[in-house]
Amino acid sequence: MDEETGNSSYLIDLPNGGKSFVIGNLLMHGPNAENRKLISYGAEGLANPDNELYVVNNTMVSKRSAGATFVGIQSGTTVAKIINNLMTGQGIMFTGTADTTSNLLLSDVSQAKFLDEPDYDYHLTSSSPGINQGTNPDSVPGFNLVPKFEYIHPLSYSSRTDNGIDIGAYQWNTTGVEDNSYLSSFLVYPNPVSSTAEISFMNYAPGFISLKMFDMLGREVMTIYEGYFKIGESKFQLNTSQLPRGVYELLLQSNGKAETAKLVVW
Question: I need a surface site. Which of 63, 72, 153, 229 has the fewest CB within 10 A?
Fold first, then answer.
């Protein structure tokens, strides 16, 4: 995610090929991006065995005025499949050779009808052209190509709903509620923490919530909060002074949605 001021080169660089899966990502080139390619595959030579590339259900946004190549594929790649991707901005879908299925390439980001593009929220709305236009990507031996999670900017993710296949990294909220009621901006600070951390929410929906902590073996360590979350509340304090050092996961559940965040205690 370049946002408006970043100047990245490739967003994903797979320089020597190999069996590669790019599934369910949000990739955004800002206006200052230094390279036209968002995904580069095999640019330094196909030195790995099984040179197969699967680019499935990604949302790719380019703000470069000079145009973009959303996927650059090295000549000689054995298999390249580009499926269910939503690409917006001036440019071309790919270079090289690829099989393409159910992709959208839109010349202007406004055509995608994202929920809040100026604030980097690329969830779909009811007027988005990619709704119900995806194809089941199925699987390849040993790997399911169907996306299971969605990215939440800037540092989190949630499970992707299983109610059809929309094009891009996000499945439309089929309840028809187009607002910020999903649990975005679930932040923990400081992280790592030695004694007390603050858990804050910038966008949330009032209602019953459950906030729990688990260790890396999946064992519940504590229930931080379980109850009704009222409008006006936005922060919780977490005392970690009695916890062993290590990495933990916070699980927040509300309104049928879930979000996680890693916490390092030192």
Answer: 153
C-alpha closest to that of 145 among 160, 133, 124, 123: 160
Is residue 7 domain-resident? Answer: no
Q: What is the span of the domain harbouring residue 259?
A: 186-265
Residue 75 lies in a domain: yes
The residue among 82, 61, 98 whose CA lies nearest residue 134 is: 82
Residues 38, 137: one domain? yes
- What letter does residue 178 receive in the DSSP assignment? -
Q: How far is CA 9 from CA 5, 25, 40, 73, 106, in A?
A: 13, 17, 10, 16, 22
Q: What is the pLDDT of residues 198-251, one digit of tens each?
A: 888 755 555 667 888 999 888 899 998 877 665 455 678 899 999 999 999 888
Query: How many residues are present in the chain?
Result: 266
C-alpha torsion sign, points 88, 1, 130, 133: positive
Q: Does residue 105 sit in the same domain as residue 232?
A: no
Residues 39 and 95 in one domain: yes
pLDDT digits (tens, 9 = 90+) for 152-201: 877 777 788 877 899 999 998 654 434 434 444 578 889 899 999 988 87
Answer yes or no: pTM beyond 0.85.
no
Read off the pLDDT of residues 37-67 as tens digits, 9 standing for 90 and up.
999 999 999 999 999 999 999 999 999 988 8
Number of DSSP helices (H) and strands (E) in the chain, helices first: 0, 25
CA distance linking residue 139 with residue 187, whole number of Å: 34
Q: Are residues 128 and 74 in the same domain?
A: yes
Q: Ramachandran region of residue 38, left (φ > 0), alpha (ψ -120 to 50) or beta?
A: alpha
